[in-house]
Here is the input.
Amino acid sequence: MKLGLTAGYWSSGPPPGIEEMIAEAERLGFDSIWTAEAYGSDCLTPLAWWGAKTSRIKFGTAIAQISARTPTATAMAAMTLDHLSGGRFILGLGASGPQVVEGWYGQPYPRPLERTREYVEIVRRVLARDKPVEFSG
Here is the structure.
């Protein structure tokens, strides 16, 4: 069994004691730490911070909202975090909900499953680095 720790949402700032909690999770042998996106903070920046302060524990997004950034920007950030951490980054993606997508990002929310499939396909193509990415969807 693997144990993971969620750091929750940041809102107006880091959760109190989060640095100590992550250091203790790594010391105790936890497999991973996770953070989410919500109103007020993205999920990638805290993971870069924690990845730099740890050496073994994996870290991931639970979840990165697909409406927050383009699939190519997500793939580039994921590749960078994974490279800087020695392969410890895990990318979790999700569609979020209409209240966030329409209200926060100002984007329509039709067919979230189809949109997620297309987004994941583009991210995979960018990560593969086989050829320039072209997509019609």
